[in-house]
Structure formats: C-alpha cells, structure tokens
Amino acid sequence: MRPDEHPEIRQLSLFKNIAETSFAYLMRGAYLQTFPPKVDLILEGENCDFLYIVVEGGVELFSSWNGRSTTMSVVRPLSTFILAAAVKDAACLMSARTLKKTRLILLPAVDVRRVLETDVAFSHAVITELAECYRGLVTNTKNIKMRSSFERLAHYLLRRLAESNSECIVTLEIEKRQLASYLGMTPENLSRSIKKLEAHGVKTNGTQFEITDVDDLRKLVKPGHVIGEFKSSAQG
Amino acid sequence: MRPDEHPEIRQLSLFKNIAETSFAYLMRGAYLQTFPPKVDLILEGENCDFLYIVVEGGVELFSSWNGRSTTMSVVRPLSTFILAAAVKDAACLMSARTLKKTRLILLPAVDVRRVLETDVAFSHAVITELAECYRGLVTNTKNIKMRSSFERLAHYLLRRLAESNSECIVTLEIEKRQLASYLGMTPENLSRSIKKLEAHGVKTNGTQFEITDVDDLRKLVKPGHVIGEFKSSAQG
DNA sequence: CGTTCAATTGATCAGCGTCAAACTAGGTGG
DNA sequence: CCACCTAGTTTGACGCTGATCAATTGAACG
After folding, report:
1. Which of B74, B108, B143 is the last residue of a domain?
2. Closest nt to residue A187, judged CA to C1'
3. Is the CB of residue B100 inside 7 Å of nucleic acid strand C?
4. pTM above the 0.85 mark?
5. Which residue, A143, A173, A199, sits at the end of a domain?
6. At B164, is the secondary structure helix, strand, or coil?
7. pLDDT for B12-39, tens place per residue?
C-alpha cells in the first residue's frame, strides 16, 4: 500500500501524531482489501497476525461457546479492531466477520509491535486507544449487570441518537437479530421490547426509530450518573 | 516514600523494566497508607488523582446505578488498579473500597502520566497491562453473556483452583454476597447453586471448597475453547 | 451474652428464553 | 415483471432460570 493511498487513516488517533517514517513503515507492509458480506476474518483462539482498520462497511466482533454465540461489538469506519491481541501477540478472544461488503486495511501485527518499540508517539496513542476500549467495555459490563434488557434497549437508542446528526431519528445499521445479541437478549424479546417502547415516546418503522419524547427515554435510562455512558464502545 | 521501602513493588510488571530514575521519581511522590476495612477509596464519576497499588489486603471495584450495585472486580496484592482512568486523566468508571485492612501505595496520576512521556519502557509496560485488563474484561463479558449463573460459579471455582497451590482445595477470600454480585447473581441463588455443586463433585464447608471430581466440573465449564479463560481478571 | 449482619431455606413471582407458527421483505430465476 | 424462495421478524403460548420477599439459622464481635 502506498502511504498516501488513504489519507483519512493518517488522521486516526492511532496514527495522527506518529512520525512520518513510522507511518510509511506501517503502510509499506499493509494490505488493502475488500471483502464480501459475511466473510470470517478472525476465528477466536487463533493467533493474531494483523491489526485491522475498517475503511468502509462494517465488522461484527463475536464469540461462540458450547453452541451459544454472542455479538460483542460492531466496528464501523474509521476504527481499528483487535488491537489488544495484536500488541500482545496473543490469541484472539473474539471472532470477526464482515457485516456487508467491507474495505479493510490489514497491518501486520509484527510491524505494529516493531513501530511500538521505536515511536513514542505511537506508544502513547496505543495507550489511549486501549484505555478507551477498556473503559467502553467497563460501561458495557455495567450495563449488562445492572440494567434490564428493556433498559438496555432504551440506553442503546439514546446512545445512537447522541452519535447521529438527527434530533430524533435513529436508523439501525445492523440486523435486529444482531442487535438483540449485542444487547444480550433474544430476537423475540427485542421485538417485544420495541413494541413496549411505543408507550415511551418512540415510533418505529422497520429499522427507523423516531424518538418523540427524549425525556421519557431518559427517565428509563437515567444516564449521567455514570460518566462516559455515551462514548465509544469497545473493540480492542 | 523511599524507593527502597517496598522492594517487591519494583518487581511488578509495570515497573520491572523502567529506569531507576523513573522509579525513584514515582516513589518520591508516592504515599504508603493503611486503611481499615470497608473504606471508600474511589467514588465513580470523580476524577482520578492516583494510581493505586494493593500491597496487602484487598480492594473491591464496584459500580452503582439507580439503587442497584454490582461488584466488578476484586484486586489482591500485588496489583494495580484504576490504571485506565489514571493515564487518561478521566473520571473513574468504578468505585473502590477496601475489603479488609489494606495497605496501599498511591501514586499521583500526574506523576504517572509524566513518566509515561519520558520512559519508553514504562509506556510498554502500561500497554501490556492495559491490554491484559481489556482481555480479562472480554472474557468476563463472554462469561456473563454465554454462561448460566451455575456455569459461571463452576468456572469461577476452576479458575481459583488453577491459581491456588492446592490440588483440590479452594478457599473463598471474599464474602459470598460479594462473590454473588461479581458472578451476576443474588446471594440466595448462589447459596442454592453451591448446593447443586455437590452433585458435581464439590464438597463445601463454609468458605472451603473441596473439588473431588475436577473432570465433572470441567464438563460443566467446557474451558479451553476460549484461550485465556484462566488468566487474570480485569482491574484497570 | 446480646447485637448485628451474613448465609440459608422456603415460597412465590417475573423476566426472559424456548418452541412453534404466521408474516414480511429482499433477492433470484423463469 | 412477477412468482417464488429463503431468511429475518413478529406474534402467541409456555416453561425455566433466577429475582424477590420473608423467616430462620449461623457466625463474628464488642
């Protein structure tokens, strides 16, 4: 890959402040590839050879055990994923698959670790990124342990609303079954919970959600007690 | 604090490879303090002024929301906690309190961030530590989302057994109500689950657990599919 | 030796998962 | 362009896991 091929990734917080030579070194070994939907990228348990960057499309991080399976995170452009395993040169704890047609940059993990040794700015960026991933997961865990599935759904909508440009419209970019799994509930239960939302100022139409009474939702979610609730979700 | 006051903390992975001057700088500003049981050290939402090291005793990391509360992690000697918030200079996402009489080292977070800028070895140690914390939490989340409460208990016992010296004895070092909260269940349910364990080769006597049939437990837990299951728990 | 709080036990109930069936939408081939 | 097929979604009925409530037992500590 040429270093100037995707100028926008130079602006990622991971690379923004690193030396030009470090960036060039990383790009020299990088692959830019486009994958069809539903392609397995990573199988949990396998060692981690690349750090991934989502340029376009979307990637689901999930885990399977004993016939069960759960969506851990959804990674959208421009974000990296599987950073923790890459820097530790360890087995991946999550599997990854594309949600739709997706363009990815693959940085060989050895190169990442190499640059880590020479470029202090990169080290600091990795520290910040890992800390954010960690804190995102902490918030996630608190959610699962302290809120009901219905409250988690309301919380999710408020989070997506805060991220969006709109005042009151949220559009799901993933299938409901995957959202259900991410929220730790069954598709059936999600379907019923969405119905229940209508009594709390949310009109739905397929993947469109119109929040007509934000305050009502906030009453369910009671955010603000916990700082960081509406920040990023984890994907390290 | 004198740099040579607690030689064992020099051996912590966070400090093992850092420069002597960095370590001295950190120690110069450090406080060594002993706290009684059940003392609140950190209130979530407040900014993080220190990085903590547990020298003796134990600390519970927990979170509260809307009248509910949950134990997120238990930190034992010699470990650090609240590293992520300290390096990010951000609000803590978890509260902390001592479980019993506990000796702690408090490193001013500004000093930590200062050393981060000058000492590459320290940066790398922080990266490793954060990555481990993150991966511990990933495992935790997978546990909560994919295993039943009974399976989580069995898994917990096997984990503690792997950490202990004994072939078959596990001794709880926390109250059962806290274990229940950590595992995401009620004390009543934990009590009943412990009873159920007797049918799977576990004899109990108060806080003592004797695992007489490890294979039976393993059948419940089915570990090994997910690498890293028996490593550390998160506490960043 | 009494006070206090954790742990246990029993009874009940609710949230949510499971199973099954009907419905809908998006994509494909005739 | 439409019929069809497949897969996701919705709806209903039912059952189980685990929470709640209440009462008792047990253990730690002054």
Report:
1. B143
2. D9
3. no
4. yes
5. A143
6. coil
7. 999 999 999 999 999 999 999 999 999 9
